[in-house]
Amino acid sequence: MSELLRALPQLARLIARLVADPTLPRPVKIALAAAAVYLASPIDLVPDFIPWLGYVDDLLLAALVVDGLLNWVDRALILRYWPGSPESLERVARAARLLAAWVPRRLKARVFAVR
């Protein structure tokens, strides 16, 4: 979890660069934009003022986005825009995979479905 939190600036740069890439499928861009809006919004499923629990929904969403990107988007495209080393991306991927395990695979596939 701390690995994912430390990587947030790198993840923000990655997402901004990916959204600008013309080869990224539109459904993935929409999912990334929706996640960014939710994370930036002060309105959450679990209010942030509740200690510890308030950030669980944000953390799960961030893990879902990272896990989805790494499972449904070409790894070479992600590595092209990842500001860190491939090893740092693997560490972030492991952390995201552990947290995203709480999200049903069908939901993950539906969010990042490319038609």
User: Could you give the order of the helices and strands?
Assistant: HHHHHHH
Counting DSSP H or I runs of 4 or more residues, the number of helices is: 7
| Overall geometric form | globular
Termini Cα gap? 32 Å
Strand content: under 5%
Concise account of the structure shown:
With 115 residues, this protein is mainly alpha-helical. It has helices spanning 2-6, 8-20, 26-40, 56-72, 75-81, 86-100, 105-111. The chain has one domain.
Explained architecture:
By secondary structure, the chain is mostly helical. It has one domain (about 1-110). About 70% of the residues lie in helices and about 0% in strands. It is built from seven helices and no strands. The chain has helices spanning about 1-5, 10-20, 25-40, 55-70, 75-80, 85-100, 105-110. Helix 3 (about 25-40) packs antiparallel against helix 4 (about 55-70) and helix 4 crosses helix 6 (about 85-100). The protein is globular and about 40 Å long. The model has no long low-confidence stretch (mean pLDDT about 80).
